[in-house]
Amino acid sequence: MSREEWTARAAAHRSRLAPYVEPHLARRGARVKHPVNDFLFTYYSYRPAHLLRWHPGYGVRLEDAEEYASLRGYSDGSVTSEFLADKRLLIETLLKLLRATASREAHFGCFGLHEWAMVYRLTPEQVRHADWPLRLGTTGTDRVVESHRIACSHFDAYRFFTPPAAPLNTLSPRSDDRADFEQPGCLHGNMDLYKHAFRLSPLISSDLVADCFELAWEIRTMDMKAAPYDLSDLGLDPIRIETAAGKQEYAAAQRSFAERAAPLRERLIGECERLLEEVSLVPTASSEHVTDVMSAQGMSPP
Fold it and tell me: pTM, whole model, 2 decimals?
C-alpha cells in the first residue's frame, strides 16, 4: 500500500475515533470520572493511543512506513510471520469462543439485571459508581433483584455480583468455560467483540476494531441506562426494567444490538480462519511460550 493511501486511511481512522478518545483523556487529566464514557478505556486494557493507531492487518506491506519500524510485530512495513505464529493459540481460542457463541440461540430475557446484582445489599457508599444515586434507593434496588429471575451467562459480568447476589443467578459461568455459556443476545458478549478485535491487532485491520468499538460504545450507553443508577444529570433517561414497558424497551434494544453484532462476529471469525490458514505456512511458535502470553492476558488455552 502506497504511503499516500495508508496515511490517508490512518488519518481517517484517527479522526473517526478522536471524538471518543480525546474527551476521555481530558477527563483523565482533570481527574473527572464518567461512569459511561470512560468504561471502554478503563475496563478494557487497550490504550487510547493504540486505539487511535491504524493497522492494515497481516499480509499488507506499507510503503515508506518508518513510523511503524519500532512497533512490536512489524518489520519492513508489515506484520511478521513470526508474530503471527506467536499468536496462534490466541487465535484458536478466540475462534472457538466466537463460533460457539454464534451457534447458539439468542436470549433476550436478562433485562440488564447484572448491574443490579452488582449493588445488591450494598450501602450507597459501597457501590462502584458511588457518585451517582440509585434510582430506587437501596431497599427498592434490592427488591428488584429479589423479585426477578437472574440468568447472567457472561462470566465477566457475573464475577462482579455481590456475594449475596451470586447464588441467585441460575447459571454459574466460570473464566475457563466461556465457550459453554456465551450467547449472541448478551450485551456484554457483544461488547466484548471489541476486546476480541483489539487482541487480534495488528493482525487484523483497525477498521474492524473501530467498528466493534463503536458498537460497544452504544451498548455500554444502553446498559447503563438500564442500570439502577440515576444518570439523568448526564442526559441519560432511564430504561425502567422494573416495569413491563421498560422490559419491552430493553429487550427490543438488546435484539437490535444482537442483529448488529452478528456480522461483526462473522467478520472476526473470518479473520481468525484466514490467519490460521496463513500461520499454517510458517513455523509454529512454542506452545509453552504462547500459553504463558495468554495466561498473562487472562485467557485460557484451548
Answer: 0.90
Q: Compute the distance between CA of residue 239 and CA of residue 128 in angstroms, rounded to an integer.
A: 20
* Contacts for 130-139: CB closer than 8 Å, 24+ residues apart: 131/33, 131/35, 132/35, 132/229, 132/230, 132/231, 133/229, 133/230, 134/228, 134/229, 134/230, 135/228, 135/229, 135/230, 135/238, 136/228, 136/242
| Alpha-carbon span 173 to 156, nearest angstrom | 9
Cα–Cα distance for residue pair 93/279, rounded to 1 Å: 14
| Residues ≥6 apart with Cβ < 8 Å to 76 | 61
pLDDT single digits (tens) 222-258:
999 999 999 999 999 999 999 999 999 999 999 999 9
Cα separation, 257 vs 83, whole angstroms: 33
Taking the C-alpha atoms of residue 180 and residue 296, their distance in angstroms, rounded to an integer, is 22
In the numeric block, the cell 473517526 is attached to: 16
pLDDT confidence band for 293 (50 / 70 / 90): very low
Instruction: State the cell numbers at 258.
Output: 444482537
The H or E element containing residue 78 is strand 78-79
Span 21-42, pLDDT tens digits? 999 999 999 999 999 999 999 9
